[in-house]
Amino acid sequence: MYEYHKLTPEQKAELVEQRLSRGYPPHSPPHLIRDRQFYLLTATCYEHKCHMQSESRRQQLLNKIFDSFSISENDRESASALTTNLTICAWVVLPNHYHLLVQVVNFDVLSDLFRRTHGALSRQWNMEDNITKRKIWYSWSDRAIRSKRHYYTTLNYIHYNPVKHGLVQSPYDWVETSVHWYLQACGKQWLRDCWTQYPLQSYGKDWDNL
Questions:
Q1: Which of 29, 57, 101, 202 pairs with 67 at a CA distance of 20 to 30 A?
Q2: Angle at Cα 167 formed by Cα 65 and Cα 88, nearest 5°?
């Protein structure tokens, strides 16, 4: 994703030409698989800057996500509210990116949901910081979930993400993550069994450098 900024002008032009020849947009991640039931969705702050360093901003993002994705606060606690378009099954918000595991009915609504969510927060945070026209978000990306194993490994990846990035020593120490709902609803033994049965291994290697 951000390796593009390190390329020479000639390399950038060649890369854009390759993407266009394949029918991809010139810079944004292509969304090639649009007919699956479950997806891992990822959105990152522009140039990986930590615009969500504070817990309050991470909570603001979570609130906006659940509002924009048409899930009520009560349904958020159950983590299983099926709307017309999608269900949020798991989540984590870090200082410079976030992940959502979702069940999608209509893939085509996602772009509008991200645009609405990111647009509102960009305006709010730029006003709070007294900055104009600051670019806060990069485009979102998706990975289609292929199997039951892929689903639960993705769930573990999401919950382990704060540890992976050195922010905490235990997944339970991070606030803005669905691990706490799963802990309450399913119990710690269920989470341990899930971790044992569906280990991460090399899952997600180098994703944050793309």
A1: 29
A2: 25
**Residue from 55, 58, 89, 57 nearest 75 by CA:** 89
Rounded to whole angstroms, how far apart are CA atoms 46 and 206?
17
* Confidence grade of residue 150 (pLDDT, cut at 50, 70, 90): very high
Tell me, what DSSP letter sits at residue 95?
S
Boundaries of every domain in the chain: 1-30, 31-209
The tens digit of pLDDT for each residue in 140-149 reads 888 899 999 9
Residue 140 and residue 137: Cα distance in Å, rounded? 9
Sheet with 38-44: list strands edge to edge: 86-93, 97-104, 38-44, 141-144
Name the class of domain 31-209. Answer: alpha beta
